Amino acid sequence: MTGNTRLKLPGFGRSLEEFDTGPEAKYCLHALWDKFQFLSSGVTLREVRMMEFMNQITDKPEWERKVFDEGIVNKWHEETMGARSQEMDLDGDVYMSEEMFDCCIEELRDKAKEYKDTGLISILDAEVRVVKSDLAIPSSLNDLLKATVKPLEDVPDHHKDWHPRSNKKVLDLLHPSLFPMVYGTSRVLPYGKVPLSSCAKFSGSGETYALPEEERRPRPPYPNLMGSTQWLPSDVAWADAGTTKITSYINNLHPDDHAELYSVLEKFVAAAVPLWERCLFMRRVHSLDPTGISGRRIFPVTIGNKAFQPPEDEEEEQRSCYWDGEEEQVGDDWILTWPEPYYYENRTRPAKMRPNLRAEFPDGLQVIFKLANIHLTPSNPEYEGGSLHIEGALNDRIVATALYYYDCDNITESVLTLYQPVDTEGLRQQAPRNQYESTERWLGVSNYEPGLQLLGSVVTREGRFIAFPNVLAHQVEPFKLADNSRPGHRKILAMFLVDPNFRVLSTSVVPPQRKDWWAREVRDISPFNRLPTEIFDMIIEFVVDFPMSWEDALATREILMEERTMVDAEFDIMMDDNMFNFCEH
Known about the structure:
The protein has 14 helices and 25 strands. The protein is of the alpha+beta class. A hairpin with a 7-residue loop joins strand 6 (161-162) and strand 7.
């Protein structure tokens, strides 16, 4: 956008649903966007266990060395083949077959080579992938983050922003739900940009834009995927030598007061880019197939009509059973055959199959920032966990998340669990005729269950950086104090990447909406700079509607949270509509 061109972005001069449909247009996959929705072809329980095993191995110290030590590998083999199968109810299967174990070790050795080069590990990577790293952030940068966040923590108790309905366990230090973009109310610059250094001077500038009536009406079949508000990202430009530069203010983080934290967050964005590039998948508008989706280790329907086999050395006593209206001959004591992995091939995602964010999007990225602490005390010792959700509403256009756990003290192990939506209709059509029971048992799913499948969990320990695409639903699992005699905490930096193909309204065009920021600017202007503080504060109190007061921001946050609850409910409905249904149509 040049200085003479009027701004047109979704929610300001453009429909929230308008997008480029040109022959070269492409977008990142998204759990809520039906046109670019990822649906898994289904992952067998055996492959889930293979991913679980490799994920656990890569959590071990020096795993990248140990995986080449045959003595240690033999010990892992003994542990895996023995106790695990006895401890778990595996529906007659073993935790891991010899073929599965051998395949895992070969793959781990390839992962070790990539880890030595990059410090990154791809996990839960049946089709899309999650990326984790304990090396991406040096300890010096971790210490800088702690130091620069401290001023946000060291505020009087009456200024602490405890997250609603968290029972004073979740302390929001920086949250995008406060002072968000409100369609029809927030002001937007139709021309030009809000400068970072003097952003507050632009408070009150710009125009409001009411969404057309048709966009305010519910849109079937899922009317609540978008809301009346939008989280405001910051614009991030590319700088020299792989670094980044935040070029517009971070919502609710004053750039003059927190200049050093801005510099630290720029380093975290730069560190997140390689993780995002490994977990992002894009699809062209006129193509059904995203580039770079991984091949499967085990296919659930490759056995064909040999899903069930009679017991060895026994006469085949067969019975007739009616299944889905069709007759099938299956012996009462026939045994399900469990599929084995294909021959191993390197699953490292080549650079040419990954997006290159700097090269493909030279104008930079849009990133939403959040800082939150979970505090536990002897009188409040347990965190109950979070809800299963997708990040943001559809109009936020978040396509990937990066989470950094920078400070954990006196808490039990915490994990993040991830689920993926499944192409249930495609799975039903691919299954051998009338052998739906084998498909259900291979995948660990049941008829009439929502089309959502557990992929696995990631340990969220201190110093770990995790990234995943916003096609996966995720949930923070419960944890508690390790020692009930003293407090404990977990501190998190979250960064949400907006689809770089689909730019949204950001802080570069939406001036600060905070009344307290605006009042600071007014205070420096004559004659207000000569007034007694009490008189000045009284004058500011008379200003209503805009800029937004703290009380108005809290009320707006309640509306936003209700809308996000409806988004989560809508996703649940989508998964219910996509239920496993193995009846004949």
